[in-house]
Amino acid sequence: SEPVTLPAGAVLFEEGAIGHCAYLILSGRIAIFRRRDGGESVLGRRGAGELFGEMAILDALPRSAGVRAEEDCVLVPVGAAQIRQRLAGADPILRLCLEGLIARFRETLPRLGPAVAGSRPAALSPAARADFDATVAALAQERALRRALAQDEFALFLQPIVRLATGRLAGFEALIRWHDPERGLVPPAAFIPAAEASGLIVAITAWVIGEIGRIVPPILQAGLQAPASVEASLFVSFNVTAQDLARSDIPGLIDAMLRRTGIAPGALKLEITESTLMQDPAGAAAALARCRAAGLGIAVDDFGTGYSSLSHLSALPITTLKVDRAFVRAMLAEPRDRRIVQTILRLAEEIGVAAVAEGIEGRAEAEALAAMGCALGQGYHFGRPMPQADALAAAAA
Ligand code: C2E
Ligand code: CA
Ligand code: CA
Ligand code: CA
Q1: Which residues, in sequence order, are bridge partners of residue 356?
Q2: What pLDDT score does 250 carry?
Q3: How many angstroms separate the alpha carbon of residue 146 from the centre of ligand 4?
Q4: 3-state DSSP call for residue 21?
Q5: Cα–Cα distance between 229 and 231 in angstroms, integer?
Q6: Ligand positioned closest to the Cα atom of 322
Q7: Which atom of ligand 1 approaches the CA of 208 most closely?
Q8: What's the pLDDT at 116?
Q9: Are 354 and 161 in contact (CB under 8 A)?
Q10: 192 CB less than 6 Å from ligand 1?
Q11: Element (H, E) at 227
Q12: 89, 208, 203, 230: which is closest to 157 by C-alpha?
């Protein structure tokens, strides 16, 4: 859905047509019209910064009126799926309000007279303009992400995870990268939030799972040769979101990938952040239980930042807690952060799960964490996220 141009006088759609998208007006002006008894009346006009054509998308009924360009227009189509995805994620009361408003508008439509002659949309307030610009940017981002998926612009990098007591390589975390031909290497923080807002995250995670199946087997194979600096049973963890667990069959996708590749389920670990887990603990529980029953490990990511209720946590089949980087970074300078790390490590021990400290940038943190009994560590001190070829070399070293 690239922006489209519509010359002055052209009709975009007629009353009664099936709606496939709404439109944002980047520039120009349109008139909304109906034909009755051989005459035509203009119901309203929309200009730059406004949306039209959303009604038929929201209630899935035919277009209630036609639209014609009154000036040359540049329009950004917003697909039905894009709108319905957001609606599905919206507050249920808000959704009801919207549905009620639309139903009422449809009822009053037959009585609507022509628009006041010469009416023009009022200029947008700066705040509304900023909202509009952000919306247009989000749609452009979404287009770019769809293209990235279609053209295979993603890559999975692997960051080493090390047994702190021995210094031996224990596994890797898979971290996604986007090679955008226009912007270069884009970090996940710059596109995962947009992927979540648009629902594209589900397709991205499916890609991640497929890519794990492609790049991981040679690495596990290399570990089996048991070089001195590498543990024989390496694992690879990868990140999933609450939306993935709620909206797609993650256990099924993983199961199919395991069968296809012969990867042992115990060699894989799901990472899910504490904050997303707490958004919908019950929704995540079933999928996590299935993955755990299949033999995968379950790691709670960014632990300590998500306000977990321990009762919710204890109901989930967790095997690993990952201590958030924020505490690790501050622990040498701040006694408080050191005590938080200690508390998380003790909690992990109490409930019988492994702990991984992330964001270890120096030897001093690595040694302090080892002394505190933290089993595993990850961070630039041991290695940055790297392409599969480099990870393979590390596993064979
Ligand atoms: P995360 O899961 O907490 O991943 C750890 C992040 O910390 C990674 O950033 C990693 O490169 C970075 N990191 C590791 N060690 C150090 C260190 O010593 N110092 C510093 N400063 N940073 C370190 P990255 O790769 O940019 O990923 C950021 C976040 O994006 C991840 O946080 C994760 O939440 C998300 N993400 C990455 N890949 C995926 C993916 O495939 N799927 C999903 N859903 N999310 C992903
Ligand atoms: Ca992670
Ligand atoms: Ca993390
Ligand atoms: Ca994080």
Answers
A1: 322, 376
A2: 93
A3: 24
A4: strand
A5: 7
A6: 3
A7: 41
A8: 53
A9: no
A10: yes
A11: none
A12: 208
Under a CB-based contact definition with an 8 Å cutoff, are residues 270 and 208 in contact? no
How far the first Cα of the chain sits from its last, in Å, is: 48
- Which superfamily is assigned to 152-396 in CATH? EAL domain (3.20.20.450)
Strand order in the sheet with 21-27: 4-6, 73-79, 21-27, 51-52
283-292 long-range Cβ contacts below 8 angstroms, 24+ apart: 283/242, 283/245, 283/246, 284/242, 284/245, 284/246, 284/316, 285/315, 285/316, 287/245, 287/246, 287/250, 287/251, 288/245, 288/316, 288/317, 289/317, 290/251, 291/250, 291/251, 291/254, 292/317, 292/319
Distance 4 CA to ligand 3 centre (A): 41
User: Of the candidates 390, 380, 389, which has an alpha carbon nearest to the alpha carbon of residue 162?
Assistant: 380
Please count the CA atoms within 13 angstroms of the CA of 183 that sit on its side-chain side. 13
Domain spans of the chain, in order of start: 4-123, 152-396
Pick the CATH number of 4-123 from 3.40.50.2300, 2.60.120.10, 3.40.50.460, 3.30.420.40: 2.60.120.10
CA angle at 376 for the pair 340 and 349, rounded to the nearest 5°:
55
List, run by run, the mean pLDDT of 10-residue segments along the chain (397 residues): 92 95 95 90 91 90 94 94 83 88 85 59 77 87 93 97 97 97 92 91 97 98 88 96 89 97 97 85 87 96 80 86 95 94 94 95 96 97 98 94
